[in-house]
Specification:
- By secondary structure, the protein is α/β, with parallel strands linked by helices.
- It is 53% helix and 11% strand.
- It has one domain: Collagenase (Catalytic Domain) (3-Layer(aba) Sandwich).
- The protein has twelve helices and six strands.
- α6 links the parallel β1 and β2.
């Protein structure tokens, strides 16, 4: 065999492998992962740690299990401050996080690569530079999200959200909502939408955000966690907590906001069946971003 032929065969093989890796490997790997049976122990943990799981239709429960299975096979968990990340921790975080993409495409979480878990609220040294003055502050946080694909969570806060499913706070939902917000490159309270849906979202959320800020300025009772008034990104994350944790209250207080969130998440927590139309697991989103 001539050297030219050897080179041609090598080049064609390399190109073929590159094409497979770039366009088909991820889907192939995910299909293989889903061929493995979902462990019964995981199902029991979802049943106890993710209360909404118990109320889903059988098809939606299976869909959540598939997303959890992919999430656990692809994301890396790290315990901080000697915290032991066991199956309870992993299933609790994955189960709540995947509620956000239950009826959306799994690829929405492609950029999430690692989850760091502290046993409790943790200290962060924050440095701000306004161009003239550098200020340093020590903050206590329950969680944070990064555009670099990293989510940090305090397990004590995660547990609180799991055992109090109708409560106001759920740090897992909150931080993974930020990850969805990052899909268009920046966390600005407007996740990627298109056309009329984007226009309606902008109008509805702007009115609701300004209403919340106006209520707080005039010391009126807020229908939502006041932290949502700090900036639009936090408004979206806090709304997401309310949408999954207190859907009836949110719908009663802000029906247009609730409708917009139903459209984005393609799921209605009040009926548990409106998102029953399966979304593709490994392909592209149903709607254009």
């Amino acid at each position: 065999m001539s050297s030219a032929l050897i080179y041609t065969v090598f080049a064609v093989t390399l190109i073929g492998l590159s094409v497979f890796y770039l366009f088909f490997y991820q889907q192939w790997r995910r299909e293989r992962a889903l061929q493995r049976p979902f462990p019964e122990q995981w199902r029991q943990l979802l049943n106890t740690q993710v209360p909404l799981y118990r109320r889903l239709s059988p098809s939606l429960r299976q869909q959540l299990e598939q997303r959890v299975q992919l999430f656990l096979s692809e994301k890396s968990f790290y315990g901080c401050d000697d915290f032991d990340v066991d199956d309870t921790v992993r299933l609790t975080i994955a189960g709540h996080a995947c509620l956000l993409i239950l009826a959306r495409d799994y690829s929405d979480f492609d950029e999430v690569r690692s989850i760091l878990v502290y046993p409790d609220a943790y200290h962060v040294r924050d440095v701000e530079n306004d161009g003239m003055v550098v200020s340093v502050s020590n903050q206590i946080r329950a969680g944070e999200a990064s555009s670099r694909g990293q989510v940090v969570l305090a397990w004590a806060e995660c547990e609180e959200g799991a055992v109090n499913p109708n409560g106001e706070h759920n740090v897992i939902l909150h931080e993974f909502a930020h990850q969805l917000d990052y899909l268009d490159g920046t966390a600005d309270g407007a996740p990627p939408l298109s056309g009329e849906q984007a226009r309606q979202w902008q109008q509805t959320m702007t009115r609701a955000y300004e209403h919340l800020r106006h209520s707080l300025r005039h010391h009126q009772h807020s229908w939502l966690d006041p932290y949502g008034a700090t900036e639009p990104a936090e408004f979206f994350a806090v709304l997401t907590e309310a949408f999954f944790q207190q859907p009836k209250h949110l719908n009663d207080e802000q029906p247009e906001v609730y409708k917009a969130l139903c459209g984005f998440y393609r799921f209605d927590p009040l009926t548990d069946v409106s998102g029953d139309q399966a979304a593709p697991v490994a392909g592209h989103p149903k709607t254009s971003h």
